[in-house]
């Protein structure tokens, strides 16, 4: 780009642009020339306009998930009939310490169920003071060889800490690669599950295991793959699932009967 006579002021952003332009002028692709044109257009238009656009795109990134609070707190008012994105705020004058409080994460969850695990959530449903704050947590108990079945949180990334036992954890990347990324964790180890990706944990020890998960939403949501697909209400038609899973309809009906 430089040899084509454009001049760049020495801001960091423009240095990056310059690098990019040098790169694309080296790779002689038609698409590069189109990109070149747009960079030329932007640069000639006005540096301030360009910087505003960059700043604006950062704003959109910042608001891509939960909105930042615009007040100290917005303790959820479960009695309000107002419909907002989140929960309506209680009168701040009536807010008490207990609105920010939960007790019970020292208590092990009951893992006597077919999967051998139990999640004890601590989100805005348990602590109304979490409303608008974009965080929550959970305790997860695992019986020996118990699993937290493949599931996804539509609104949150998750960071999980093992506080007891050993866990095999994993998540699968989106289409088309569907790469499985797994690791065995020991006590004190921390692992991240990126937002929206299907993930699971398995206790790979003969004793109980315990983990604490933190999530980047006050209301992360959970979609358990097996329950959503085979246990929906009403059921997804058997022929649809038979074709989707490439198995006989009888097998689908058998799985559906479990949920
Ligand atoms: C745990 O759950 C099972 C199955 O629902 C139940 O039979 C059992 O009583 C529960 N145990 C405790 C300690 O609550």
Automatic annotation (TrEMBL):
PANTHER family: GERMIN-LIKE PROTEIN SUBFAMILY 3 MEMBER 3. It comes from Actinidia rufa. Keywords: Apoplast, Disulfide bond, Manganese, Membrane, Metal-binding, Secreted, Transmembrane, Transmembrane helix. Gene3D superfamilies: Jelly Rolls. One of its GO terms (molecular function) is manganese ion binding. Oxalate binds at residues 148, 153, 158. Mn(2+) binds at residues 151, 153, 158, 199. Residues 103-253 form the Cupin type-1 domain. Its main location: secreted. One of its GO terms (cellular component) is apoplast. Disulfide bonds join 74-89. SUPFAM superfamilies: RmlC-like cupins. This is Germin-like protein. It is found in: Secreted, Extracellular space, Apoplast. The chain crosses the membrane at residues 37-63. Pfam families: Cupin_1. It comes from the Eukaryota. Belongs to the germin family.
């Amino acid at each position: 780009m430089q040899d084509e006579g454009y001049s760049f002021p020495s801001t960091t952003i423009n240095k990056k642009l310059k690098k990019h332009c040098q790169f694309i002028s080296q790779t002689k692709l038609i698409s590069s020339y189109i990109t070149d044109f747009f960079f030329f257009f932007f640069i000639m238009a006005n540096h301030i306009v360009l910087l505003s656009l960059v700043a604006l795109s950062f704003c959109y990134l910042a608001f891509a998930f939960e909105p930042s609070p615009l007040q100290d707190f917005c303790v959820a008012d479960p009695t309000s009939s107002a419909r907002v994105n989140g929960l309506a705020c209680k009168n701040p004058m009536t807010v008490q310490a207990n609105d920010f409080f939960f007790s019970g994460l020292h208590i092990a969850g009951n893992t006597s169920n077919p999967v051998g695990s139990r999640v004890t959530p601590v989100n805005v449903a348990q602590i109304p003071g979490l409303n608008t704050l974009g965080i929550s947590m959970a305790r997860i108990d695992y019986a020996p060889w118990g699993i937290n079945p493949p599931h996804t949180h539509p609104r949150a990334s998750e960071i999980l800490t093992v506080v007891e036992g050993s866990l095999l954890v994993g998540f699968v990347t989106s289409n088309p690669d569907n790469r499985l990324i797994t690791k065995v964790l020991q006590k004190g180890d921390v692992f991240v599950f990126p937002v929206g990706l299907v993930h699971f944990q398995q206790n790979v020890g003969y004793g109980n295991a315990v983990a604490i998960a933190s999530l980047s939403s006050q209301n992360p949501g959970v979609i358990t793959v097996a329950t959503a697909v085979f246990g929906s209400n009403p059921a997804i038609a058997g022929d649809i699932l038979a074709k989707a899973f490439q198995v006989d309809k009888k097998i689908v009906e058998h799985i559906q009967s479990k949920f």
